[in-house]
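2024-03-11 09:14:02 INFO queue: dequeued item Serine aminopeptidase S33 domain-containing protein, len=727
2024-03-11 09:14:02 INFO validating residues
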Amino acid sequence: MDVIKHGSLLAHTSLARSENPLQKFAEINVMPPSGSLSRRNVWKHPFRLSTTTAKLSSSTDAPRKGKKPARREINKEPLRTEISPKPWRDSKEHDAQIVLLEKLAAEKALTETTPNGKHGGQRVWEELQKLTDRDTGTPRWLRYTSATKQEENAPLFLCLPNIISSGLSLSRHQEKLARLFEIRRLHVPVNDLSTNEDLIGLIEGTIREESSRRKGRPIYLLGEGYGALLALSVAARNPDVDLVLVLVDPATWCDERNILPPVVDVLDAAPGPVSSALPFLFSMSVGDPVTIAKAIVDPSLPQLEKLQQIMLALRDVLQVMATASVVWSRDVAPRKVNQLQMAARSAISEMENVKAQVLVLYSGKAQNENESKRLRERIPSAVGRGFRDRYGSLLLEDGIELASLIKASNMYRRGKSRNIVTDYVPPTEEEKEEFRKAHLDLFKQVFSPVYFHVKDDGSVKRGLPKLTKERPILLVCNHTFVGFDLGIIIGSFMESQNVMIRALAHPLVTTDQPGEVMAASSLPDLTRLLGAVPVSGSSLYKLLAAKETVFLLPGGMREAVKRKGESYKLIWPAKPEFVRTAIRHGAVIIPMAAVGGDEFIKILWDQQEILSLPIIGEQLHRLGNQMPRARQTNGGDDEGHMLGTVGIPTPPPRMYFTYQKPIYTHELSNYLNDNEVVEGLYQQVKSEIEAGMSYLLKKREEDPYQDFVPRMLYEKTWGKQAPTFKP
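2024-03-11 09:14:37 INFO prediction written
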């Protein structure tokens, strides 16, 4: 097979170009002499894993010359005699049970990673080929190590097997996950006879041992399909262990009486070496062949060449699956199907006892819509991400980044609770690029933002102010309608100065609501990846104490959902607490003004008018009161939510931003408890923002490209941003 990587062909020894795939496989893996293979008598190639070194070693027991190889019995004894599910008493003995994979060298990591950070197809192909290995022995943990720098005190990340155990789904994500976690994968040989209870006992023993060794740190369980069922059962039986579950297309729908198509029973009645249920198991646990073939081929290739390579890859993927089907014994499929059904029934019956954090990832498969609803009903605290346009194996799909999803859902933590400072991991270059493609580039095209800043001498210059790290910085701005410009402000400093702004935003943007299933690559997820956190006094305190650059909209939701006649009006709370916090930490306050966002919507009926209606208003009141709020206001319970305004969109206005002169608060540390000084500084910040808005509203009348149509025509014609007024 031709594996495409960086636009070039990589040769490898496999089933590629072989007229007889079984013969080619025999040459590599020392199959028995011709005629000795039958559906009930398969010669087993022992594959021994060293538990004392970091390398995989294998040995081959060749049959004696002239004699037919004897049938080898696998795992006749119960699993509990092989690996005790009880906690390990000796840490050295515990470590000896973990098989180390070969450490990736920096050169190999470089050649197996595409420029955009996604793993190349070689790793996916290598994991697929392992399905044809004659792997024997008991279930065991495999540890993944990488040359990539890992976060300090990285939590343990246990990957549980699907009904057919393989590292295929994890292969695309392990390098990025290794930056955040210590990764181990439970490998279960396909012919192993361990029951669900055996595997659950093994996992329980591991998490209890590791929990006692890693005090105060969570343990993550990743489960796809059948693995998700095991994770649910383990979490339900161990509510006292701090667990975080990441479930991918959980197979809870398999509790039905018959999960196989009726034709399978008919075909299995006929003699033959292969069970007709194997294609079903392959599709569910390994992935459909088309998705695997796409994962092998480099997505950056030209479209025609990529399609050609996908077809070649698809052929070889099908050959590998056909070979694996013959290698496995015929009774594997019915036994696995029964095991799957039993695990689904057990997980559903225990689901209400799950106390762990749960993140569920759903593809667009038909059964997932009902399962998503059932899981949210049984585990109300679970949150999810839906990928309705993806129908294959979700973790093999291009554009699905597991590490990013965990961070974006606020599930990544290294302690008992998430710390917005120490648990924040800056976005990778790939995550920044995703934000650009998904939102920032579009915002820039539509609104064509321009920036100004006031220098120390009072002159106004084009461009952003230079932010330094000497002191914490607090950017304070007016809140335009619904805050469409938040992404523009964050993205501007990210692109020009590589500074990540920690925005204090409404809980609707920064916090998943219980039972919520959000769409993929949503703006809330991307703003969280860039550092946005729920707005609160404690959040501001922690961020400024860590000398972060913080963005604050004091007006909150009340100022965001404006009423008629309130354009560019500051509606701030009476207490100047953010100023007091800034003085406490010696922060630099930079007042800034934003103009353009309040014209994005023409208000027909504002919130006050709608909420005063007899029937509709009462319904909106109830819905609004159920929504999370950043703070309560003194103006009534209708002022803290976003429901009620009716308007029509206008042609996108141009966005203007000006940054006023910095206000240094470190000299006011002795006046922290002086209410008069604090109130005076509060009013100074407000007046600076109001002055900035007045300046922009006046000067934009001089902008020949203020309106959307001439601005868009200019930028499409000349391929650059339209000019604006001179400051």
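2024-03-11 09:14:37 INFO annotate: DSSP finds 26 helices and 22 strands in the chain.
2024-03-11 09:14:38 INFO item closed
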